[in-house]
Model the fold of this input.
Amino acid sequence: MPPRTCDIVIVGTGPAGLGAAFRLTERTPAPAIIMVDRERVSSGGLLNDCKQNYTFPIGFATDSWTKEEAERLLPRVENCLKPEIKEKRHLSIYRRRAERLGVTLLDVRQAHVGTDRSRDLIRRLVTELEARGVAFLLSREVTDVFDGPDGVGIVIDGTETVRARKVIVAPGRKGFDFLQEIMERLSVPYIDNIVDVGVRIETTLSNYPIVNDYYDPKFLFPGGVRTFCTNSGHARVVLEKYQKFSLVNGHALSTAQASNDLVNFALLKTIGLKDPVRSGHQMAVYLARLANEIGGGRPLMQRVGDFRMGKRSTLETFNDDLYAFPPSCPVTAGDLGLAVPAKIMRTIWAALKKLDTIVPGVLHPSTIMYYPEIKMYANKPAFLDGHFRVSGNVYMAGDGAGTSRGITGAWASGIRAAEGIMEAIR
Ligand SMILES: Cc1cc2nc3c(=O)[nH]c(=O)nc-3n(C[C@H](O)[C@H](O)[C@H](O)COP(=O)(O)OP(=O)(O)OC[C@H]3O[C@@H](n4cnc5c(N)ncnc54)[C@H](O)[C@@H]3O)c2cc1C
Done:
């Protein structure tokens, strides 16, 4: 079979890949684009929950972005995703309370689609791109990317070659190993020294009512701890499954669904590892595997009341009888103290105590802490220019390449790569 050919091939149909495709097809005539994904629909945050943050630096990797550059592109992101921005109330009151404790509360423009509605959004985006001539190859895995004297392109499922003038690789966080393999094969130097480690908190709406005023409040605490990805309405903690372990995450349904009166959010601490450390990703894997080992193959959960008393939680305490609510993601009841490195746990606990002063109630004894919630962001290639080019004709963008940490940042990263290509093939 002769190889397929096109102008630009995009690996990954997450927000980074879609952002690139929308920007590239603004030009007439539009270049011939093929997008490839190993899933049937784009996975990741567009599909799960789909909260969108439209304020820098949320969702952006600040070492790759200036405020001005992000603010130039965010309106373009908004133009494609067409968000309904949520209103906030009483922000100045919460801010005053936070500032007294040395905590910052960011004012972020936000929208929330909800897991039940996100497929409609993805369908609309894909249909629009198809109408602009973009071809989608779904349920197909890219196994190689090449860029050399014999040409530029990708290999799908180990057998089929697609030749192109330019390639954008945007495989997200789950494409971490794939991206590293490609970087090694293309001799692209990279660093992998940052990891976010933390817990996911689950409590009742009455214990964390701030979410009625501010959907996903972004608190920055001393010690590099921040709140992240708050979900309410019909909210659930979920497992994020990898080959040898599971992490926890959270999502919520749209406002069309009845509330389950639960709230969940992550408290994450950013760890910047220094020489001679080899890999933040490996550290994350070890931490995750330790927690899953202690949890008998699953993450751990512990009630705040038990944690305070220095004793492990047991399954019997996770009921409606003694405490207020059963967990939305029943994992293994245990002792986080055995699994979370002490330094990380101390900083997170200090942040939680401050949060409980700002929003009294969140440290109710029934509140559940789940672990591990880990974000393996940085797998950062040495970029050759401001458009995330890593070799003559290959660009790497999105969460997998460490240029973003969320939907809008990933989308904007795709636009930046696309603009580099538009300049190059003008
Ligand atoms: C459960 C969950 C909930 C989240 N909720 C939010 C949220 O509400 N708001 C927010 O801003 N962020 C959220 N995020 C984070 C968000 O998903 C990411 O920041 C964003 O999707 C990154 O975009 P991306 O395009 O870089 O990667 P992704 O969205 O991960 O897309 C990468 C795509 O590449 C494909 N791929 C990978 N390797 C290959 C390969 N070898 N061949 C072919 N295809 C491949 C994958 O299947 C995937 O579809 C969430 C993440 C998770 C896991």
User: Anything to note?
Assistant: The mean pLDDT is 93.
